[in-house]
Amino acid sequence: MPAPSDGNPAAHPDARSQPLRNLWRLRPYLRPYAAEFAWLLVAALAATAASLAVPLVVQRVVDGPVARHDEVGLLRLGALALLLGLAEAVLIFIRRWTQSSSSVGMEAAIRADIYAHLQRLPAGFHDRWQSGQLLSRVTSDLSVIRRFLSFGLLFLVLNLITYAAVVVLLIRLHPWLGLLVAASAVPLFLISRRFARHYHAASRRMQDQQGDVATLVEETAQGLRTMRAYGRGPELAARFAAGAHRLHDTGVGKARLLARTSALFDLVPNLTLGAVLVAGAAAVAGGALTIGQLVAFVSLQLMLIWPVQSLGWIIANGQEAATAADRIQEVLDTPPTIVDAPDARPLRRSEVRGRLRFERVSFRYPGAPTPVLHELDLTVEPGETLALVGATGCGKSTLLSLVPRLHEVTGGRITLDGHDLRDLRLGSLRRLVAVAFEEPTLFSMSVRENLTLGRPDAGDEEVRAALTLAQADFAYELPWGLATRIGEQGLSLSGGQRQRLALARAVLGRPALLVLDDPLSALDVHTEALVETALRRVLRDTTALLVVHRPSTVALADRVALMEGGRIVAVGTHSEMLAEVPAYRAVLSAEPERRPDGVRLVRS
Ligand SMILES: Nc1ncnc2c1ncn2[C@@H]1O[C@H](COP(=O)(O)OP(=O)(O)OP(=O)(O)O)[C@@H](O)[C@H]1O
């Protein structure tokens, strides 16, 4: 369930104290486009220069050919104004053309880096972060940054240069009136500063709330069946409505803040224009200014109205980009904690005998008050199948997740043939270890792609063997065989079908270590018996660690380890344990169910 929007795990206090710092840190992404940016800035500045020249031409027209009734001069200056207008149009086209390709390229580069970083981050990070928050950062936050880099930033630079250039021209035309216009920058600066401060907070709030809403939509899509089955649709709709309402309120608040400030940004240049008209008319009357100069002055001043009016939008865009950059850097600044040690070595399949040892292994989830595993010792001999049995929540799945280093031990060590797992290259370890989780995860891609996720090079025969082994030949019967694209999470398949595909994926290529978390839980009695028979064949020549809940699956194991409160309390064969360990009997006899064939089913 989504946490409150201000409760993002990695909200960094530093990011708030220096609002533009994180945006500035994105500058390396601009570097490959430096030439294009320089080119578009030149085009934009040239277009501005062309537009600024027009009022000066008009001044000459009014004071020259119009005053003297000189038709040839009028035509010449008219043609010059036309040329300037044409040049401006062409330059604006060049700027827009260049702008779009470079900014989209930058957005794609940042997105690729975030995605690659998310892949490197440990499972613990993804446990803590809502997926909707990540989704909104990779999509809407990046779009905000793209808009700022392609439009906001350019217009900020351009408008400041235009403002400065116009003020210089105005001062040259009439120093006092020019200084009056220059002075209007003071209230504009004060309004901008206040607006930026308030808009920054609102913008961050809105982006976080967008993430919350994305999380709600994602949860609804994934949990739709459960919610409907429990008749909780209305509650879910109410929860969504509350989230959407908060987002709406923040959006309206932001828009009103922008509207209020934009009104002030409109007022200041118009008041200045009024003052200039009065004072300018007096100056013309006194002979200090020609009519042509006054027309040029006012025309130039009118050219300041749009840059000032757009200031509100540019600041808003800049603040949104700054908070979006904060949110993106919160992800990029999270260091991947499970990485290769500097001297990590690869381990080839042919070098592995398969002795897996847990030596005084402890593990505590980040932020959890107590450890889940306490100085646990366990050895799985090469080629042996060891089943883990224990009450629910005792830490079985957690122990399995430490083998492919999805989480890192917080005490002790795990060794494979004597090598500490942390001394092995992560990539090579994960190629040696195949995992099938209790909840089989399938991706929205073809069945074949799902199967060969860990072995993209697997041949057709290997895939067929794995499917046969996992009793998953039904895959060939799908409408397009193995090319059939299965839905997100494999939802177009039954639970048992998904589990069998996940099992086929795990056994594909005969891994050195097989780690299976209750791999047969969703299978019917008949299929379970078939998969068990097939699994027995695979397990013969690989080291395997299985979490099992059913006595029938326990029979697959050479030995069984009983887990209690994060420790291994007894190890032995199933019959030894049944005979000698009352706690084992108790776990296996908890919540017994009876299968139609009379065999007792047991769930821990
Ligand atoms: N991502 C997590 N973050 C924090 N605590 C967790 C996390 N995953 C599991 N836990 C806690 O760790 C303990 C052990 O969980 P684990 O899933 O390993 O138990 P289990 O023995 O496999 O249970 P089951 O048989 O029900 O699958 C539980 O108390 C659980 O609440």
What percentage of amino acids are in beta strands? 5-15%
- The radius of gyration over CA amounts to 35 Å
CATH class of the largest domain: Mainly Alpha
Q: In terms of structural class, how would the helical and strand content be classed? A: alpha/beta
Write the layout of secondary structure elements.
Blueprint: H1 13-17, H2 21-24, H3 34-68, H4 71-120, H5 123-128, H6 131-173, H7 175-183, H8 185-229, H9 233-285, H10 291-302, H11 305-332, E1 356-363, E2 373-380, E3 385-390, H12 396-402, E4 411-416, E5 419-420, H13 426-432, E6 433-436, H14 447-451, H15 460-469, H16 474-477, H17 495-507, E7 513-517, H18 525-540, E8 543-547, H19 551-554, E9 559-564, E10 567-572, H20 574-580, H21 582-589, E11 592-594, E12 600-602
Parallel strand pairs: 3-8, 3-9, 6-7, 7-8
Antiparallel strand pairs: 1-2, 1-4, 4-5, 9-10, 11-12
Helix pairs in contact: 3-4, 3-6, 3-10, 4-6, 6-7, 6-8, 6-10, 6-11, 8-9, 8-11, 9-10, 9-11, 15-17
Question: What is shown here, in short?
Answer:
It comes from Micromonospora humi. The protein has helices at residues 13-17, 21-24, 34-68, 71-120, 123-128, 131-173, 175-183, 185-229, 233-285, 291-302, 305-332, 396-402, 426-432, 447-451, 460-469, 474-477, 495-507, 525-540, 551-554, 574-580, 582-589; strands at residues 356-363, 373-380, 385-390, 411-416, 419-420, 433-436, 513-517, 543-547, 559-564, 567-572, 592-594, 600-602. It is an alpha/beta fold and 604 residues long.
